[in-house]
């Protein structure tokens, strides 16, 4: 769906990415005795990087002298989480800032690290990415220094790649389908014949509405027990998009086989309005008039006509 932001995994982490740490006195919550907290031992180059800020907010980073970085990855947990430990079988949601250590410049501002949550069991995920996250508890902020040679081993065609720094907030994606409690529908235009917690929606049908351009309708048919989604947050969702005119599917994360992630203010307005104020774990039906969708300028080459009202069925899985 055009309008859902889909950055790739920052060119395998921007072609130069992982490191950092909150070492200002009293700032780090990591336990030095915890092997998940630090890789590489004491008195490392990573000790010369400082990070200030709460998890799930944009970090303020200062990079000092990291010339002593060797050939091995260095990682420190900055703000320790309390969620489940990340394993090689985990799928993770990551927001991060990416830096080129040689220039000390940010290559990518704080935001999602990839176009979709990262399946650490996938064969196409570089080992250095897996090493960055495995062993860390969910909802942690970590800092990782990554020698250039490790990235070059995994990045085809890359040249002159410098050492990288990644400041990352990471959360395990432990559900791929909404898990909320069924609610009575508030509309009868869109129906789902099978609408159950922890089950993919089936039998989605769209009845022709009485007017060509209905008002915005937001219908939470499963009510989740998670946090409220706030304006500007990044969400992980599963969704199906259809034309209100005839119910034709024009996009579906379920059909692609992976969730999508994006900020609530970086999608068409009606889609964002369908998310903000809902709770994580919810399934939402959204009927969106054209002026809150693509209006007279739909995505080129797609199947959405001009001035078309749209329908979305959305499962909200994460929000940070």
Automatic annotation (TrEMBL):
Origin: domain of life: Bacteria
Keyword Isomerase: yes
Lineage: Bacteria, Bacillati, Actinomycetota, Actinomycetes, Micrococcales
Iron among keywords: no
EC number: 5.2.1.8
Enzyme class, spelled out: isomerase
Catalytic activity from the UniProt record: [protein]-peptidylproline (omega=180) = [protein]-peptidylproline (omega=0)
Ranges for domain PPIase FKBP-type: 232-320
Organism of origin: Pseudoclavibacter albus
A GO MF term: peptidyl-prolyl cis-trans isomerase activity
Name of the protein in its database record: Peptidyl-prolyl cis-trans isomerase
């Amino acid at each position: 769906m055009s309008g859902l932001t889909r950055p790739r995994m920052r060119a395998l982490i921007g072609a130069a990415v992982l490191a950092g740490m909150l070492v200002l006195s009293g700032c780090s919550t990591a336990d030095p005795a915890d092997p998940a907290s630090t890789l590489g031992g004491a008195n490392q180059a990573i000790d010369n990087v400082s990070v200030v800020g709460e998890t799930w907010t944009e970090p303020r980073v200062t990079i000092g002298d990291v010339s002593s970085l060797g050939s091995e990855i260095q990682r420190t947990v900055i703000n320790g989480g309390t969620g489940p430990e990340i394993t090689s079988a985990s799928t993770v949601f990551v927001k991060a800032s990416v830096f080129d250590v040689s220039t000390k410049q940010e290559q990518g501002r704080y935001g999602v690290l990839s176009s979709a949550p990262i399946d650490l069991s996938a064969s196409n995920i570089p080992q250095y990415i897996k090493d960055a996250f495995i062993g860390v508890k969910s909802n942690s902020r970590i800092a990782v220094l990554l020698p250039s040679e490790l990235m070059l081993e995994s990045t085809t065609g890359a040249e002159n790649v410098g050492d990288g720094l990644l400041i990352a907030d990471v959360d395990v994606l432990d559900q791929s389908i909404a898990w909320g409690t069924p609610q009575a529908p508030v509309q009868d235009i869109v129906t789902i014949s099978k609408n159950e917690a922890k089950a993919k929606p089936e039998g989605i049908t769209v009845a022709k509405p009485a007017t060509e351009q209905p008002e915005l309708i937001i219908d939470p048919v499963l009510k989740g027990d998670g946090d409220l989604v706030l304006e500007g947050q990044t969400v992980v969702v599963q969704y199906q998009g259809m034309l209100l005119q005839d119910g034709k599917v024009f996009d579906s994360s379920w059909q692609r086989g992976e969730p999508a992630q994006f900020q609530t203010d970086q999608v068409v307005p009606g889609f964002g309005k369908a998310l903000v104020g809902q709770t994580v774990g919810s399934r939402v039906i959204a009927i969106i008039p054209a002026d809150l969708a693509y209006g007279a300028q739909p995505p080129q080459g797609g199947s959405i006509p001009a001035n078309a009202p749209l329908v979305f069925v959305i499962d909200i899985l994460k929000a940070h």
